[in-house]
Structures are given as C-alpha cells and as structure tokens.
Amino acid sequence: MSKVIMTVDDSVSIRQMVSFTLKKEGYDVLEAVDGMDALKKLNGENAVHMIITDLNMPNMDGIELIRNVRANARYKFIPIIMLTTESQDERKQAGKAAGATGWIVKPFNPEQLIGVIKKVLK
Amino acid sequence: MNEMKDISEIYRQEAEERLAEIEETVLEIEENPEDKEAVNRLFRAVHTIKGSGAMFGFNEIAEFTHHLETALDKVRNGALAVTKDLIDLILKSRDHITSILSSSQTGARFDEEKGNKIIAALNGLLPDEDAYVQSPVHDERPNAKENFETTYRIRFRPDHTLFSNGTDPIPLFEELKTLGECRIIPLIKEIPSLDDMNPEYCYLSWDIILTARTGMDAIKDVFIFVEDNCELIIDIIDRADDFDEDHVARKLGEILVDRKDLSKEEISQALSKQKKLGELLVESEIADRQTVESALTEQMQIKNVRDKRNEETKASSIRVAADKLDTLVDLVGELVTTQARLSQFSLSNGDQNLMSIAEEVERLTSELRDNTMSIRMMPIGTTFSNFKRLVRDLSSELGKEIDLVTEGAETELDKTVIERLGDPLMHLIRNSIDHGIESPEKRIAAGKTRKGTIRLKAEHKGAYVVITIDDDGTGLKVDAIKAKAMEKGLISKDADISDKDAFNLIFMPGFSTAEAVTNVSGRGVGMDVVKKTIDSLRGSIEVNSTSGKGSSIKLRLPLTLAIINGLLVKIGEGNYIIPLSAVEECVELTKEIIESSHGSDILNLRGEIVPYIRLRDCFGITEDKPDLEHIVITDVHDKRIGFVVDNVVGGHQTVIKSLGPAFKQMKNLSGATILGDGTVALILDLNTLT
C-alpha cells in the first residue's frame, strides 16, 4: 500500500504542484486548505504517513497545526515538513520547537521536494 | 511539462482571486485600522502571491511583492502604523501586480519604472534599518563531486528526544549509502535497563564509516534537519590524494586514541598482556564491544580502500628495470646529438628534400625526448612518506612533539634526482628535529604551541623544482654561528658578515654548532655533504632564519639531469653552453657601455645596474677579441648577472655528458656536450661562476 502524504496550504497552486509531484512518485495525497481542515482530515479512516504544511494560513496556521498533530498519539512520530521562506528564520525555529521534522524553503522545485521526502520518510 | 503549464494557469486564477481579496481587505482596514484579523488576511494573500509566484516562474511578481510583504509584516507586528499613504501604496502595488500578471499573459511590457517608484515609496515608510531587505535569493545546493575518494568517520549521537519531532534515522542512513561505500555500527551502551527506559526515547548512537567522492558539505546536508538535535562529528580519515600516509592500515590502538575513545596509556597497558587488543579491551571492560567493533570496521574499510587503490595503480602501470630506462635515455641523448648533425648538414647541403626530412626528424626527436624524460619522472611523495616515519621515531626518542606537514607530494622530479635527494633531505629534517624544534616545555615557555611543525613542500618553478623545509623552532643563532666559525678559523676574528653569509657558513666542511653531540646529528659531517650533493645535482641551497621563530631551507633542483635547453655561445675558438632556463636576454657590449662605466664591469640595463663577468678573463682566453662583444644577461639566485661572450650562436638541445673523474676538481663547468658538427661544448655552471 502506498504511503499517504497530506499537503496543507491555502494556496491552491502550491497544493496542486505538491500533489502532482507526489502522485507521480507513487504516493497517495490528501489535500487540506488550512490547519483546521487538516486536523479534521487527519482523524479520518485512512492514516496519514507524513504532512507537508505551509506556515501562513487562515483559521489555524502551520505552527498551531504541528503542535496539535504532535499531541495526537496517532501522529506523534510522523514526519512533518514545513514550507518556509528565506526571510522567516524565526518562524522556522518556532516550527521546529513545535515539532516539525524539517523544512523546505520556497520557492522549491519538484526534485527538491522529493529529495526532502526521501530524507524523512522511510 | 504540460501539467506545469496547467499549474501556471491555476496560479494565475489564484492570484486574481487574491488580488481581489487584497482590494476588499485594504478597504476594510482603512475603515477599521485595528482589525488584526484583516491585517493577517492581507498579509497571507500577499504572501501567497509572492511564494507561489516564485515557484511557478513569476519572478517579477515575487520580487515586487516581496517588498510589499516586508512592509505588511511590519504592520502585522505593530512596527508600522496604518496610514492613508500606506493604504494608497498597497492599492497601487495591487494594481501593479495585476498589470505584471496580465502582461505575462499577453506578452505586453508592464511599467517597470512605476514598480520601482512604489518600492521606493514602500521602503521610505519603513524604519531605517529595514529599508533595504534583500529580495529572496534561492541558493542552489552545491553538489560538488570531488575527483578522489575520501573516507569519513561520522559520529552521530542523537539526543534522546530525536523521535519526538518525527525524525527517523533510517532514511538518513539510506541517503548516506547513496553517497558511497558505507558501514554503519550502532552503539548500544546508552540503553538503560528496562525499568529506566522511556520507550519514546532514542538511546542509540551510530558510528558510520563512509568512503565517497563527495565533499564534507554533502554529508552535512544529509543531517541538515537533525543538526540541532544531535552531536555530529565528521572527520576525514583517509584521502586518495594522500601520499603521506604509509600504505598500511592503521593499528586499532592508534585509531582508538585518535578518536579519543581511549588514551595511549590504556592501550599500552592492555598491550602488555599480549593478547588480541580488541578482545582484551572488551574483557577488561575498558571499552565496550561496539566501540571496538566500530574502530575495527574503520580499520577494515580503510584497508580495503587502500588495497583497492594500490591495485588500481598497479593495474595501470608496468614495472621496468631502472637500467633499461637509463639506456633508453642515453640512446635518446645520442639521437638528439645525431639529429643536430643531420640538421646542420641539411642546412649546409641546401637540398630541399633533405631539409624537410631533417625538420621532421627534429620534431619527432624532441617529442621522443620529452616523452622519455617524462617516463623518468616520479612523484616526490614516495620519499616524503619515509620522513613521516623518521619524524615520528626521532621526536619520541628526543621527547619532542613534532608534526610533519607535507605539501606538493605529487610534484614530479627525475628519478635520479629523487634518489640522490633522499639523504640530504633526511639530514635537513634530522637537523630540524634535533636543533630546530625545542622541547615541549621550552616551546610553552616561549609562548608557542606545545607541538612543533616541520613543513616539507615541493613545487615547480620553471625548469626547477623548489623544495622547502620550514620549521617553527628556535631558528639559527647568528652569533653562535659566527663565534663557532671564528673558533674554527673559518672566518677571521674581525670579519663583518651579513646574516645571510653567516647562515651559509653552516655548509662549510667541519662546521657544527650543536652544543652536545647527540645520537641524531651534530657530528659535523652533515651540512657540507648536503651542499655537495645538491651541487652535484646542479641545484642550489638557501637558508633563511629568524631567531626564535624558525628557519627555512630552500633547495632548487633542475627537473632533469640528462638533457637541458642551452644557449650556445662562442669565446675565441671554444664553444660554451649556458643553461637557457637562467638566460633572460642578450645585449651588445658597446664601446659606450664600457666608457660610461669607467673601468668597473657594470652595465646600466634600462635603469637597473647589472654587473657582468668577462668569461674571457675567467678562462684565460687570449685569442683576439671581436670588435663587438655580447653580454648574456642571466638570473642567478634572483640576481641579474651578465656574462661577456664573443658571439651568441643560438639555442641548442644539450645532452649533458659528465666530464669524467679526471676533471672532478674543475669548477665553473658542470659538464660537456657534443655539437652537431662533432665538436665539444662546455656547459657553464653559473652558480660557481658568480
């Protein structure tokens, strides 16, 4: 069974790009538009094996989402990758403190995305 | 990629939606500047336009929007107040982004000038230190491949909490494996008893031995996400371009000490029991099994890598008896001489066909000569590795701590030169160890590092190879040298000589300043022998020293002993060769020059004073002088010196023949050669002439 990766982003174009890249690599993809949406979908029937989330989102931002995911016994140890920009070092640190596994700096290309996933997902 | 095009389309739609949102939100904020949620929404919209824009190739949008984002970030943090100016600017920015977006679709140019004005105005609103924020630059990760294999020891000691942010070490190891040959040894000594164990903690750590053609950065990149959550030490333990290390895998004990797992004392204690060290260490519980196993793995991998490398070198070369090579060089020498005769004959004969054949032969001969010479070239690194051992043994014998650093081990020199160089170099290094580097106590007292360093360096310089031996020891004591020289009667009591001349005194026969004759050096038979050997190799030696700081000895050696490029000159009836590598230019010795120097043999060469030597007088030649003599300007020991000759004939491939034992005492000449017409030309030794 292929691994399920959730992409959380309020930008539809980023979600599309991530989703398209991952599907081509043989992963199943679940999309969520913000932290709230993500938390709801995480509690669905199918387990998610990894999360790629943006940090700036309405309703619930990425850092809050990471904190919530880590508090959930089901997802305590799954890899979580956050999307950051060069100018957001502070946010990156906050994300790490909340329990993020790693990060990708925007803009990124599909190869870089796959490279990071290979780094954290068995 | 077609799908990527679709995504661009999606981005365009998304951006349009966001731009509409921006307009709406800005107007909301204008009515109610305190609405935090509205400000956040505005920021997010701008952020998305920027972030996604950069991803899908809308770089102009990303760059422009970056400035707007910076300003809005300040608003969000309360560092910038919402004013009417700001609102205007945001709306203008929004319109500008719209125009860039539509221009990307229609291909029409947008107004860049307008964009710059908006950016300037936005920056004007910011507090000074933030006025200029670098727009985001994406750095391409360097994936530099190195030409040679390097073996790394990676010690990966994660924090106990490694798993809590979702890190799984296995993919990291998988990634390392893609870099090269990789051995991973888990260390389990940290695992507590079951009662004390927190099942969510990581108690393991790993030693990894990796042989790869990648740089250190590529390895660090693998661990980039965990570098804050672990202790990571990466050491280079073997490099393929390393000539210095003996081609033997290092002993287990040495590796353990090097890794600071154990001290030297613990090792020798264990060794005295004469059992296998690894077993012993485990039995006596000095080290646990994993530590030993990890070190053993390292030993094995390095041995494998080196064995493989040696095999590769062997496979690509064949061994030939040295005398066969010597014969070949002799034959090529004869061929060069014969070819010179052919060329000369063809010229005087004037037959066009013969001349073209002679030219062809000349070309082939010179190629053959170069190739043959290159066969005899060997990297000097082979001798360097002997010295590592010498330094190690001698320094421990003398209770000193010395590092030998070698550079340029790949520098190639003629085999004969290398062979004859071994002893002098050995002697010079011995001297540095014995007299140069002080004992650790003295060094610390002098404010130096405990460990002394001897630097052995070889490099190409023109037709020469320069070998330098530097040490950071006590340096030569000029006064002691002078005193000793006076005592031995080498210089007169009232002699006033420069430091440089004083340094050269150490090369006089029977000179030794060592306060006590040690086992290592100081018998006073050394330096003059060194000088003689270097002279016989047509090389030169130079000493420099700063008292208390160290000394430096420089050897200049010709690349080869067999064939050189020479300048053929005539004095009277005799032919002479000046090594072309030393020649800078030729000038005429006119009457004016002689008159203007008022009897002293000095020439004003474009404002520089150059002394010259009349070879006629040197060699006692009494035949008639020509009306116009020539001066060959040469560079000897970085000084310009002219040699007066009757006539300059031209360049000549000079096969060096030794003068034979009967002329051993002959100074000023380093050999002879046979010219095309069968006559003999003598090769001048500029070092002794000046």
Can you walk me through this structure?
- The complex is a heterodimer of chains A (122) and B (690).
- By secondary structure, chain A is of the alpha/beta class.
- Chain A has a single domain, classed as Response regulator (Rossmann fold).
- Helix content of chain A is 43%, strand content 21%.
- Chain A is built from 5 helices and 5 strands.
- Chain A has a 5-stranded parallel β-sheet with strand order 2-1-3-4-5, with helices on both faces.
- In chain A, strand 1, helix 1 and strand 2 (28-32) form a beta-alpha-beta unit.
- The longest helix of chain A has 13 residues, at 12-24.
- Chain B has 5 domains: 2-130, Four Helix Bundle (Hemerythrin (Met), subunit A) (Up-down Bundle), CATH 1.20.120; 145-312, Histidine kinase CheA-like, P2 response regulator-binding domain (Alpha-Beta Plaits); 322-376, Helix Hairpins; 380-558, 2-Layer Sandwich (Heat Shock Protein 90), CATH 3.30.565; 563-689, SH3 Domains (SH3 type barrels).
- In chain B, the strands form 5 sheets. In chain B, strands 6-8-9-11-10 form a 5-stranded mixed β-sheet.
- Mean pLDDT of chain B is 81; it is low at 130-144 and 515-525.
- The A-B interface holds A 10-14, 16-17, 20, 54, 56-58, 70, 76-80, 83, 85-87, 96, 99-103, 105-108, 118-122 and B 3, 6-7, 10-11, 14, 40-41, 43-44, 47-48, 50-52, 54-56, 62, 70, 133, 136-138, 163-168, 170-172, 174-175, 200, 222, 224-225, 228.
